[in-house]
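Each lists chain and fold; for instance:
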Amino acid sequence: METLVLENQIAFDFEGLDEKEESLIMTENLIKPQNHDYVKEEVLFVVVKADNDNVAKGLANLRLCGKKMIDWVLLAGSCCEQLVIEDCEDIIGRVRGVNTDKKYIAVFYSDTPLFDKASFFRVMDYFASKSMNFLQLSRGFIVKSDFLKNSPNFISSATGGNDIPSLIRCDSAAALSYVYQVLNERIIDYHIRNGVSIFSKSTVFIDADVEIDSTVVIYPNNILQGESVISAGTILESGNIIDNSILLGNCFVKGTIIKDSKISAGTRLEFENKIVGEAR
């Protein structure tokens, strides 16, 4: 199912990467909308801030690949009006009290950071095409605002229901580790599609807000963090940590830690455990 992505949204909406993992509820033929303007105009995207100290303290704000966990979920609904609410026993009651003129309310949880815009559009298309009043998901739900307000006895759980593969809940250390791995792999695949050569994907870690030009070559054992910019023609040999720094074109860097710095074009840095920290 195609999705509309604005040009200025870095492709961490990850369209098409999970097409093989279709949910069972998405297998029927749908009345396919011409575009997704209706989502932007008619949906209130609500994220429930879910913490679980048994997994990690301050789970909703735990950083995964450079973004807070809750921000990954908010990114899925970035085209919509958004609202963050605290978790509670009566989520339906809490959402019922929200004042909105939107036709639909879509509720998701901050502990599902693999949920992306492509998945959100697919489930909204299903919901709208079937003229449903309510759809319970494995972690969240979608409801028509009028139905919610006019059905005072309506109750539902926050979990269970139709399974969406991307709604994987970080409810254990193992799940958290898996989610981090998937997010990092998605980021790396995005850059490879844009012409970056990356060797040994399992040993390269790139934050979501790092910008990398095509023709950059990245060898194993590199960590790129923060809002770093790696310009065209640069070669990152093994053993670098680059944090919130700019490398202009055609640099060669090996075994170096670069933090809060700007490296001139054509610079060659080849040291073991050398720290570079000039002002940007």
